[in-house]
Amino acid sequence: MSVQEVPKESLKAVIPDETERRLNIGIIGAGRIGQVHADNITFRLRNANLVGVSSGSRKLAERCSLAHGCEPYYDYHTLIENPAVDAVCICSASNQHTDQIIAAARAGKHIFCEKPIDTNLEVIDKALVEVRKAGVKLQVGFNRRFDQNYRRVRDAIIAGEIGSPQILHIISRDPAPPPLEYVKNSGGIWMDCAIHDMDMSRFLIGSEVEEVYVLGAVNLDPAIKQYGDVDTSIVTLRFSNGVIGSIDNSRQAVYGYDQRCEVLGSGGSIHINNNYQNSAVISNSSAVKRDLPLNFFMDRYTDSFIVELNEFCDSVLNDKPVPCTGLDGRAPVVIALAAKKSYQESRPVRLTEVDLPLPESLVGWDGQ
Amino acid sequence: MSVQEVPKESLKAVIPDETERRLNIGIIGAGRIGQVHADNITFRLRNANLVGVSSGSRKLAERCSLAHGCEPYYDYHTLIENPAVDAVCICSASNQHTDQIIAAARAGKHIFCEKPIDTNLEVIDKALVEVRKAGVKLQVGFNRRFDQNYRRVRDAIIAGEIGSPQILHIISRDPAPPPLEYVKNSGGIWMDCAIHDMDMSRFLIGSEVEEVYVLGAVNLDPAIKQYGDVDTSIVTLRFSNGVIGSIDNSRQAVYGYDQRCEVLGSGGSIHINNNYQNSAVISNSSAVKRDLPLNFFMDRYTDSFIVELNEFCDSVLNDKPVPCTGLDGRAPVVIALAAKKSYQESRPVRLTEVDLPLPESLVGWDGQ
Amino acid sequence: MSVQEVPKESLKAVIPDETERRLNIGIIGAGRIGQVHADNITFRLRNANLVGVSSGSRKLAERCSLAHGCEPYYDYHTLIENPAVDAVCICSASNQHTDQIIAAARAGKHIFCEKPIDTNLEVIDKALVEVRKAGVKLQVGFNRRFDQNYRRVRDAIIAGEIGSPQILHIISRDPAPPPLEYVKNSGGIWMDCAIHDMDMSRFLIGSEVEEVYVLGAVNLDPAIKQYGDVDTSIVTLRFSNGVIGSIDNSRQAVYGYDQRCEVLGSGGSIHINNNYQNSAVISNSSAVKRDLPLNFFMDRYTDSFIVELNEFCDSVLNDKPVPCTGLDGRAPVVIALAAKKSYQESRPVRLTEVDLPLPESLVGWDGQ
Amino acid sequence: MSVQEVPKESLKAVIPDETERRLNIGIIGAGRIGQVHADNITFRLRNANLVGVSSGSRKLAERCSLAHGCEPYYDYHTLIENPAVDAVCICSASNQHTDQIIAAARAGKHIFCEKPIDTNLEVIDKALVEVRKAGVKLQVGFNRRFDQNYRRVRDAIIAGEIGSPQILHIISRDPAPPPLEYVKNSGGIWMDCAIHDMDMSRFLIGSEVEEVYVLGAVNLDPAIKQYGDVDTSIVTLRFSNGVIGSIDNSRQAVYGYDQRCEVLGSGGSIHINNNYQNSAVISNSSAVKRDLPLNFFMDRYTDSFIVELNEFCDSVLNDKPVPCTGLDGRAPVVIALAAKKSYQESRPVRLTEVDLPLPESLVGWDGQ
């Protein structure tokens, strides 16, 4: 039995086929999600190679790069400027995203950026302008689009298995609330939690949301009220193609991470259920029961993180459209802003009330 | 974008913690299952390191070792004798298993061996004698023991969630029959397919099978009859603790790989269902339906292959009991032999009728 | 084999226990729902006796009374005034309900009245004033309250099985739309369909609705628009106890009658599914599927019609509170009126905007 | 409110259509199952009329006939000889069945007889000889054939929805064992419980059982052993069309009445599940659970008792084949006898070993 040394070079096995190419990626940000992507690039993706990990925290940068056999960087600019880097994967705090997008775009590097791009539309648009100008690819990390359950819903709709969509319901409840300190700076339940569902609603229905109305409630900690936030919410949606829908969010479903949706169409309906650790059903003298659903987003959505990055690499390597563009990253922010306004003013809010006019240089762009 | 070179050294990332140790493994056999283990050791196991892959086929040995960044070996003896190798993972054809076990044991190497050890009890026992003499660990690859569903059944029984077990049913059906050529040399449905279920029945009930009775039928290809084999079978089991049970095998369930079981106990029952690609349910004007269950054993049991090897490494590194011993590998072979005899003679067969007396040097051994 | 004569007397078997009493009921209205109640009283209720059936249609009155071995009446006043009648079961067209309630109340007869009492609050209140003055029992026929699935939800909430309710979702979709002619006079989807769900929401949550907001869409027949109606609707609800919720209605779910609900509480959630003709699951090479849910409200809610009338009889015979009072019949009408206004004005509407002040003589009344 | 008198005449409502005919039935035996049939004839069947109920117990005869508005009889011969009686429904103890069948047949009355006809083949055959000679209809009360779930399985097989059947599994477990006193005289688990499943296996597969093998165990009360009986059993079946199968019986499944089956065919599989009181699913912090399945055979199979008698009446009134003939009643007895022998001798038993040659006068008869 040996104590292993640390190989500093690339650690990913390859079949040395001359035609196989890999995208050389640098990760910016070494927190939880950065580590997830580092792991996936290193151990699971055939078409990616991890060049380095940068973090403002020297310790995190070192720990994460060592664990994945690559170089640590203490300043993201250095990483971006490394000519060996083809693309960056931005996993930093949300308020740093656009600076890093802009830096990468100017350096001609392709960009995978965690959601949300930012919570300020003006700031987002400035970044998108740079992306378009640079002609680099930008994919936003709405990972649930790559989950097998949601994909099946989307596929069913596209294939006409349920006819024309008419009603959408999304249920998206967390197993437990984050600390109050986090909630305070989270941008509120709509920008923080529901934004995934707002993206999902556009993704599934294939149409833009025009108007929202929000019912909110505080059930867990009254202190949350002082931040203008809630822990329980129903957002209703009206889409431009006539579909109507609702998004149900809660910061706490005691039975676990509850992630379901349902679409009624003219030809039928489709719904997806939660994922479980096992399929065992136990019947005893008091009940027929099974274990709780998977409790943590990393367990529930494990594969989606691999698939999204795999598709990003494929998009860049083979010059295909990215599956979730910068404009796709922008749109749910508008919905979240409208939701907050609706809650504050207790009335339906049209998205045009909160949206900004697109910068001229983005007009007509499809995000690719 | 770069075309990658092949790093020949270890490819697994590590956190360079002095206390972290890895088991250096050599794989013997580079077919399908050998490649699976190579992948898992290289990319998924924190406590293992792949030293080399040997195969009688020069092409397979090279292809597999290159893909996993290790050395190819064209003779398993060389691999076994490599002092860098702590343990071997035997993935060759079944009839080569015991020679390789014996060679490894004599070289003092720990052994993970795919199932079945062999189909001949005399041959098995000769190998076990060497293993015991050498004092090395031997784990047999009944991977389903490490599947989350079956584990949940086992755990429920041990925890008393269903009281004392009384009846066991296992359903284990393949999606499609193998080629007739394969069937011919497979040892028959009981040695080839049902052996997993025979192991599972011992694993779940925690007691030895004493008697079997077999009903068999040929439904797919009459040619199968000439090999004394069937494609459809019900094996009934009587355990020494009084539990009774059945194993249902079919070479073809057109809806996919059907792997379920159920145990009735004095305090309740537990059953497990198939695994599915997604949880989507579609209702249209003709039916409420979902997609078929996972169709291939590698999709259904993916994780179990990782867990079994992880536990093997843990057993060796930390000198713990292995979770599936050589004797556990021997027992289902006895059941399969009895099943075949029962089918041939159309009568219940006690296992003592087909079993051999254990070699003296194995008496009293618990396989650890 | 005999051709049967028609026994004109009571046709219900009894165990001639001196203490067993029956409520003598006259049915007003011999359409579909009148026939259902006649059947249940005659053949299924131990505590009821059918005295007669009245209908403005001579043919219907005769046909229904003959079929149930009782006397036909061609004028409901005659039936009400029959001293043998203890109670009436009003099954006529909605716009006749209150006249008949008033006549029955003045005659001192107890009243079971189909929903809705009326669609005009002023008219409803006039009837309730008479009911209260007469001191007779009035139960409104919201039969779903008596369905085993919804009862289980209610019981779970009351027993604290899911803690304090936080979010309610009701899905209530018809298998096929009624004829346009019917829709025209139906009072709209909220007064006609959703009113059941508005009652259910109060019943389950045990609190009053304070505000509604409605999203509506026309997906089936554009002609429906000209009546100010829709065929697809989401009504959001805000309850006075802080619960928020949604009601999803569609005039057409092609897979059948879709009747589900879900409540999230602080301690868990409960949801109920559709009822099916059988539990068979068929797996073939294309899907795992089952037959469609029950397609017709009479199949889905068969038992609830029996239970509701049984409880009405029990209330009267043993002077217990009725399980669904006149005020319970009034409240969903207010919600439906608010829903229509919300749809017309595209804004949340508080119920106080459409409600009338209760007549002085009803203030403080609990409906019993 | 009135205290009801007891109408002694027919109590069933009719639509006085000249063409509607009813079968006048006398019930022999006023125990539990006799009361069920009396109730169904009186209150639920449009095509039947209850003439009288006979019982050796004066009290039971009176109680049951009064409850259903018909005449009590204290001697079944008197009931049979009543010219108003078209058919008898035999609900007495099993050992009286054949005497009553013979008496009814000789009187030219059609016969519905509860299962089993008898447990002695010679006795059964004597009765069948009389039935055939008299040319009356005889239907045996295997009610599960009329249950919607089992019917769906049968229909699927006949319609080819699963191709050619290959494997059958029946699970049939009672919620609690009967008193030891009952067990003693029950004829054993195979004649008492499993006989339903033996009928079901022939019904579903549409082929005769040729051989059985039985595994039995005593898990509940060791005293049961002294009667040569068991409380837990697996019977394997080999059908003449090549299908193989198993029947799993237990006198006690603590979670309720467990009634399921599954058939694998060349084109797919079908399985049916238990029936539940409600469809509610509750998720809390410890499990996802639902209430237990229906616990009592009368709740589970309520409708089947109505349907079987309805079809019997239809057979007689319209001279159609009965859906479960005297020969269908005889066949499961042979299987049960073979099962007992198999258990006693611990070996597979062919049915020809226990069967008697059919009396000459029954040869070639199809039971109609």
From TrEMBL, chains A, B, C, D:
Keywords: Oxidoreductase. SUPFAM superfamilies: Glyceraldehyde-3-phosphate dehydrogenase-like, C-terminal domain (SSF55347), NAD(P)-binding Rossmann-fold domains (SSF51735). Residues 23-142 form the Gfo/Idh/MocA-like oxidoreductase N-terminal domain. It comes from the Eukaryota. GO terms for molecular function: nucleotide binding; oxidoreductase activity. Pfam families: GFO_IDH_MocA, GFO_IDH_MocA_C3. Coiled coil: none annotated. InterPro entries: Gfo/Idh/MocA-like_OxRdtase_N (IPR000683), GFO_IDH_MocA-like_dom (IPR055170), Myo_inos_IolG (IPR030827), NAD(P)-bd_dom_sf (IPR036291). Belongs to the Gfo/Idh/MocA family. This is Myo-inositol dehydrogenase.
